[in-house]
Design goal:
By secondary structure, the protein is an all-alpha fold. The chain folds into 2 domains: 235 residues, no CATH class; 36 residues, no CATH class. The chain is built from 16 helices and no strands. The termini are far apart. 40% of the residues are buried. The structure holds zinc ion (2 copies). One zinc ion binds next to loops.
């Protein structure tokens, strides 16, 4: 099974890259924002982190899929204990995995250690299709850990897992794409999913917006748990994280180092003083969390 999972990696990555190229063409044809200097600057580091994520996820995916297959044969998990039509079980499995992604995402904003890794994704001063898989390898490990717990507990089938991964990456490309759409269409789509503008609110520099719209594929969980921000102003979001715009922090090496740097170091590289509260108690800023409680910019 692991060998089969690895064998499917090359065509899968090829398909994702082809989809990225197609979305990039649509971005040229109907852009939401004109391309700026950050769109040019972030291309190289974003693609480097994308390929690093492909490499990391290949191993994590194969391990999770092999375990799921073994557990599925033994009927382990909630879905393995009941008899449901395959389609119903598949839909529940996909929703369970999407809920795991919502929980993982909230955790990455609330737990300082996790946020250190996740802020690499948020620190992008421009959001377009190349932002989709710009993430630190540490974030991949966190996401797969949450996904494994939910997949094993629910007894998600390997087929549902494969469908979820496919939907997740396609949705990811669309929610980050710099594509203009009519507001009425966005409003209708936001009832179900996170693109085109719902996720863009999540990339805002404004704390209240950053800490909302955590949904991965469906907007259901944000609406259920009160973390949904209507996406109508998604056409006018200031992207990025204050304090992380220095070009030295935005290179591939700089981004990979972010989780391991203290806020005093990041502030020094950025050439910005720490916030007054941080100057009084620098240690309190080392566990710099999501912007709602950020003390350093
Ligand atoms: Zn986030
Ligand atoms: Zn994003």
């Amino acid at each position: 099974m692991i060998a089969a999972a690895f064998a499917s990696t090359i065509p899968t990555i090829g398909g994702i890259l082809a989809a990225m190229a197609l979305v990039a063409l649509i971005e040229v044809a109907m852009p939401l924002h004109a391309r700026g200097r950050w769109n040019r600057f972030h291309l190289r580091p974003n693609l480097a982190l994308t390929f690093l994520t492909f490499a990391t996820n290949t191993f994590l995916n194969a391990a999770l899929l092999a375990t799921l297959l073994w557990l599925h044969a033994k009927h382990v998990g909630v879905l393995g204990m009941v008899t449901l039509p395959p389609l119903t079980a598949g839909v529940i499995g996909v929703l369970a995995l999407d809920f795991s992604s919502y929980v993982a995402h909230v955790a990455m904003h609330k737990v300082p250690t996790f946020w250190r890794y996740h802020r690499v994704h948020h620190a992008d001063p421009a959001v377009d299709v190349t932002t989709t898989i710009r993430q630190h390898p540490g974030e991949s490990v966190i996401r797969y850990a949450f996904m494994a717990v939910f997949a094993f507990a629910f007894g998600v089938s390997p087929g549902a897992f494969a469908v979820y991964r496919l939907l997740s990456v396609l949705n990811g490309l669309l929610e980050h794409a710099n594509i203009r759409m009519p507001l009425w269409l966005d409003n209708a789509l936001s009832l179900v999913t996170t693109w085109p503008y719902t996720h863009k609110i999540h990339h805002s520099r404004i704390a209240a917006e950053t800490n909302s719209n955590y949904g991965n594929i469906v907007s259901l969980f944000d609406r259920l748990f009160g973390t949904f921000t209507p996406s109508k102003r998604g056409v006018n979001v200031g992207y990025g994280l204050d304090g992380f715009d220095a070009p030295a922090l935005q290179t591939t090496a700089g981004l990979l180092a972010i989780p391991f740097r203290q806020m005093t170091t990041i502030a020094r590289i950025a050439g910005r003083p720490l916030a007054t509260s941080c100057q009084a108690r620098p240690a309190s800023c080392e566990a710099y969390t999501a912007p709602s409680t950020a003390t350093a910019t």
